[in-house]
Design goal:
129 residues; methyltransferase activity; elongated; 0% strand; 9 helices; set domain protein methyltransferase, domain 2
């Protein structure tokens, strides 16, 4: 469901791998009975039209059912824990011109990427609270 990398791609305004996330949330939030029924009905193919018509914009994410929101929230927290520093530490480093200049070009670019990723994840936390 998630693809080879096992990750979802989030943008500022929407989920870029929305079909994968939508199906994953749907399946993970099903009861065992619902899952068996869904699988028996070949539900994987039947929902393609429904999935095409629904985009996972930020607005749509905030309207998800509570179990899906909780699952996303907990997943985002786990992802944020995997980073070495928190968002505030990254922001402080970006704002500290002396410390920033001491970083190599590669370290500066990595800092910008991590900071952007964390901001998107924090935004997602707010949407699904």
């Amino acid at each position: 469901m998630v693809g080879e990398e096992g990750a979802f791609v989030l943008g500022w305004d929407e989920v870029l791998t929305e079909e994968e996330l939508s199906v994953t949330l749907k399946v993970l939030c099903m009861s065992e009975e619902e899952f068996k029924e869904y699988k028996e009905q070949d539900g994987w193919e039947d929902d393609s039209e429904e999935e095409e018509n629904s985009t996972l914009s930020n607005e749509a994410l905030s309207r998800l059912k509570t179990p899906c929101k909780k699952l996303l929230y907990d997943s985002v927290l786990l992802t944020l824990e995997s980073y070495g520093a928190d968002l505030k530490a990254e922001q402080d480093l970006l704002n500290n011109k002396e410390a920033y200049k001491k970083l190599s070009r590669r370290e500066q670019q990595a800092l910008h990427v991590r900071y952007g990723q964390k901001r998107i994840l924090h935004q997602l936390l707010e949407l699904v609270q």
